[in-house]
Amino acid sequence: MIQTLLSNLALLTTFLFFSSRLFKLQPTARSSSLSNKVKVGVLHGLFGVVLMYFSVSVSPQTFFDFRNNTIVVSAYFGGLYSSLITTLIISIGRLLLFGGINPSSLMGTFNALVVSFVSVLIFRKVTHYWKAWLGSISLNMLLAISSVTILLPAQSAEILPCYLPMVLASGLLAAYLIRFLEKSDQLLVTVEQNEQRYRSLFTLYDTLLHAAQDVAIIATDTKGIIHLYNTGAQRLFGYQAEELIGKHTPYVLHLPSEIQEYSEQLSRLHKRPIEGFEVLVDFSQHSDSQQKEWTYVRKDGSHLHVNMIVSSIKDQDHQITGYLGIGTDITEKKQAEEKLLEANRILHQLSMIDGLTEIANRRSFEENLEREWKRAERSSEALSLIMFDIDYFKLYNDTYGHLGGDFCLKRVASIAQKSLYRKPDFVARYGGEEFGIILPQTNGQDAFLIAERIREAVEAEAIQHKGSSIKSVVTISVGVATMIPYPQMDKESLISKADKALYQAKQEGRNQVRSFT
């Protein structure tokens, strides 16, 4: 008996496996289509008939098998429609193929209907999987006890101890197998979904990577070997991906002299040698990313400026596994910046030059005097200042006109410029016909001699001046002042003293040099 029941159980197990593989059904009795429910009901009903051919016969009209388990499974997968179809097929098969109408067949049909309706109710009301299955298995065992007791009261003590454990075992095995196959299906679905998602992500990643036509994306391992090189990088640097994959990035794309220069800077900073690829990723090893402008070398040998952001790639343990560089061409921007700087430099120079005489203007004079004053203060050295103007210049303008006056100013400025032999000496147009000369590291006596030399040079130039009351040529009056700056003083005091000396020279007859005493 046990051997036959085991065969019946093996058939049930085999059927459950193949039916689940055939339909891959989930317990969706409320949402499954009607055609699926019919298929489930028919398949399980036919298998229930097959199980009766391998049943255990205990009398001419009574035999035992696990057909009710197929009804439970049908109720689980397809709900009421499926279980009723399964019950109907099994009941008709029992009546037509196995002895017709008799107490045993009627009892079997009754039990099948009870299992059908109650199992559906249990699976609808009980949400916990194992509790629901244990309820259905318990129902099968109760019906088995009642059937054996009613049909074979004399043999019940002998049959039930063997049959009930097999009913329990067949139910638990069916529940476990279905649960296992469901989880396998769910896992397979999850894997397929993940695979599809990863395919989509890879497609998106590949599309984004190569759609970035104006952005170079380069990935390397920890040693700097290139293993990713996008279309933007190919366009930017002129190398195809197959030419650079597997190559060492610093020695292919970078300007060697720039790498060497930055290497020396980092080595001094870290107080250890920083060389090769480490030069490019030094800061990104200690932070999330670093940004720096580099000069790159294209395949054709031309240079371009690139703003490169280098980020470290880390694994789950936060260990660096490589580096990702994202670069944009800033060559035009750099060129525009250089042109702007040059334009600003020229504008600055122009703003410091007197437009007429082409020597320094008053603004430049004041900045230079401030600078030399602070330097003399630090070194406790003498600083001299010469202030001079053209005698009777208003009369010169009245006589020769403004064009003549402009010519005179230019000639005097040129003479003063040529009379200075040292590089630090500085001459500027202070305003109108007045000029100033700054003489760093010059004592009063030497400053007086320089002033006299300039006065004589202007007079010797013999620029005709009919309006002058002292000479028939252009002359100048000169004031000289010398100081050793100290913190309590300012440069205005030096200008004031030179102006007073100039005023004295004018008061005493012009065309002469006077020093402030």
TrEMBL record:
Membrane topology: Multi-pass membrane protein
SMART domains named in the record: GGDEF (SM00267), PAC (SM00086), PAS (SM00091)
EC number(s) per entry: 2.7.7.65
Domain PAS span(s) in chain numbering: 194-273
Stretches assigned to the GGDEF domain: 381-517
Membrane-spanning parts: 40-59, 71-93, 105-123, 132-152, 158-178
Family annotation (PANTHER family): DIGUANYLATE CYCLASE DGCM-RELATED (PTHR45138:SF9), REGULATORY COMPONENTS OF SENSORY TRANSDUCTION SYSTEM (PTHR45138)
Xref: NCBIfam families: GGDEF, sensory_box
Protein name: Diguanylate cyclase
Organism placement in taxonomy: Bacteria, Bacillati, Bacillota, Bacilli, Bacillales
